[in-house]
Design brief:
Aspartate Aminotransferase, domain 2, 2 domains, 12 helices, single chain, 410 residues, alpha/beta, Aspartate Aminotransferase, domain 1, seven-stranded mixed sheet, globular
């Protein structure tokens, strides 16, 4: 059993041990990781690191004490709302990640329904596509709700008509993804939001992946349908800064269409000798460095920088799609942004993935239907050729045969 050492260890001894501990980690800088890291260049990474370290000890819980963090958060939220077509009344706050943003969106929808005496006598429910992120189920578990997952359409997108049919008096939230993580496709947000509005139900868009990517793809002229506050009926949007905002990890945003909706994000308590306690977030203490890093990276890149990086990631995705097509595999659905998944009815995808693993690639999978999953960033750009060569070898080794059922982990 490891115990706290009696005497401290000098940094000169700890540093090499830390480096050695990471020797068997995935070589993400070489493009070997299918997810988890969002890299926009060494210069951007350096800005994120330096800004984080400058505010390493400051605490996002104490915005009265740290006016700098209050300013940074306010400006980050304003920039995000600008990208997502927020109106004059739109509001938002930073969180520590997509799961927290989703958790708080579910809480806000639940509390809004309670205030409006909506929800019926049963357990409050969330209606969401089969492809929606498991964070909604996690939030439902902790907040006393149920999830109703609706089968997808043939193109792997949410089925608006089927979702509308699933809405009941107990429904307090309807969800669409922009894009959905498994297949990288954009759900038809406008159609889902119209059904939600007709039923008087809160509509949340999970843009944790696409919130800081899709607006730039649209500006580049790509066909990405509207998904944000420009769509009538959208009440809240989650968007992660530590994904395609390229900020240090521990940074996301949650936005609301109006002040009343935003008011349900917070939690307040005043029956305490210390006085009133209130946070917009689930957590109390927040890393000041994550807030400062997001502000610094957004200002460092600006619109021009994000456009440049987005164009390169889109080109990388297209090169992957073209390459796997030449190998007799096919893209699952029609991905529009940075995620691509591909499969084959003629090959055992599990065997193909094992062939890639053997060649040093950490393989991400989709289980329904069986496929290989990539969430792309600039580390993948220079290794597309090598990846496709190794994919060809893995496909040849796998041979023909039906795709086995996969037991994938995130």
């Amino acid at each position: 059993m490891t115990r706290l050492p009696i005497e401290g260890t000098p940094w000169a001894e700890l540093e090499p041990e830390l480096r050695a501990a990471g020797e068997n980690d995935v070589a993400w800088r070489d493009g070997r990781s299918p997810a988890f890291v969002h890299f926009a260049g060494d210069d951007v990474l350096e800005v994120a690191k330096k800004a984080y370290l400058m505010y390493f000890s400051e605490n996002g819980l104490g915005l009265r004490a740290f006016h700098s963090l209050a300013r940074f958060e306010s400006e980050v939220v304003a920039m995000g709302l600008g990208l997502l077509h927020g109106g004059e009344g739109s509001r938002g706050a930073m969180t520590t990640g997509g799961t927290e943003s989703i958790f708080l969106a579910v809480k806000a929808a639940r509390d809004h329904a309670r205030a409006a005496n909506r929800g019926g006598a049963g357990v409050p429910q969330i209606v969401l596509p089969y492809s929606a992120h498991p964070a909604f189920d996690k939030a439902a578990y902790f907040l006393g709700l149920e999830t109703v997952r609706v089968p997808l359409a043939a193109d792997f997108k949410a089925n608006p008509a089927a979702m509308a049919a699933a809405i009941t008096p107990s429904t307090v939230m309807v969800v669409g993804s922009a894009p959905a993580y498994p297949h990288g496709v954009m759900d038809p947000i406008a159609a889902i939001a119209a059904h939600a509005a007709s039923a008087g139900v809160w509509m949340h868009v999970d843009a944790c992946v696409g919130g800081y990517f899709a607006p730039f793809a649209q500006k580049l002229g790509r066909e990405v349908e509207a998904f944000d506050f420009s769509v009538p009926g959208v009440r809240s949007i989650s968007a992660d800064l530590h994904k395609y905002g390229y900020a240090a990890k521990g940074a996301s945003t949650l936005f609301f269409a109006d002040p009343e909706s935003f008011s349900h994000m917070a939690w307040k308590f005043d029956n305490w000798p210390r006085g009133q306690y209130m946070t917009n977030t689930l957590v109390g203490t927040r890393a000041g460095g994550a807030i400062a890093s997001a502000w610094a990276v957004m200002n460092y890149l600006g619109e021009e920088g994000y456009l440049r990086i987005t164009e390169r990631v889109l080109a990388t995705r297209q090169a992957i799609e073209d390459g796997v097509s030449r190998l007799g595999m096919h893209t699952l659905g029609r991905p529009e942004l940075s995620i691509v998944a591909f499969g084959s009815e003629r090959h055992d995808i599990g065997a193909v993935g094992q062939g890639l693993q053997k060649r040093g690639w950490l393989t991400g999978y989709v289980t329904d239907p069986p496929g290989i999953h990539l969430m792309l960033n600039l580390t993948h750009e220079p290794v597309v050729g090598r990846y496709l060569e190794d994919m060809a070898a893995a496909v040849a080794e796998a041979g023909s045969g039906p795709a086995a059922k996969l037991q994938a982990v995130y």
